[in-house]
Amino acid sequence: MDASQVEPTGVLYQRTHNPPSTHRPPHRQDHLLSTLSERRRVSRHDAATADFDRPNAARAHDWLLGGTLNTPLDRAAATAALQAHPALRDLLRDNRAFLRQAVHHMLDTGIRQFLDLGCGLPTMGAIHQLVSSRDLDARIVYVDHDPATAARITLLTRDRPHTAVVQADLRRPRAVLEHPDTAQLLHPDTPTGLIAVDILDTLPDQDQPDRIIGTYLRALAPGSHLALTHLTTWPTTRTDPIDSDVAVTPTTMPSFDTQRWWIRHPRHPTRVRGWLDMAELPSPTPSLRTRYTGKTEAITPTEVEVLRTLLVKN
Q1: CATH number of 57-312
Q2: So which residues are the signal peptide here (predicted)?
């Protein structure tokens, strides 16, 4: 055998034939994964499912609204909350109905940009769905602090133009308003629809909700609208801490880490309206209940009342 037929490694090599190829044709998925956009999509999907081993407030909320983007752990947590607060499901669904009617009213008045604070999972009549149902174009910024929720929203709205998801703490308005996505989509001299539904009554007084909502409102152009809900009474139950500003995890409730999403901080309607230097419009949903009663383990009071209001900035 000629020495030229032997590779330096000692492996026999036929000069008259090409060596067997070790390169396999690229699989279509491999090709897709080679693109930056697909890698980002996969990254978002991983983030959106990273907390499936524990309950998530936004997914529990979704189940109470009748949605399907939730897990058995989320449903168990929501069921436990319903045992303590039987009115919770009706309350949240009526608030979502108010949101839908308020957004339709804003669209009717010509508003085409929206900022949704503490949006949770935007399903079951979310802003981008309402806009699409009317074949309108609008710019939407969803704000949520939870990484998994923000990643899931990004996946849900990935085909929706002019829609951004800002993962940020709504208690820091400047961080939200000065975020690059917010600055790019929302024009400061154009009226905005500000959504604060199911959110301000989750904030204790120490978070200064009056300062928070005031900062957002001052940044908006005249003609902007605010859709707001706020509980004015909320029962204290055996599973709630007596001082709801103190983080206490009830033993009967699956852990939400530090999220106490079922705890609310009711305030008198006069106090809430005092935060808002805006003109109040007639409610777009006068038929919605404002008081909920029923069998409950509540200590006091036994009724749940809610303020729902639509306002315009002069």
Answers
A1: 3.40.50.150
A2: none
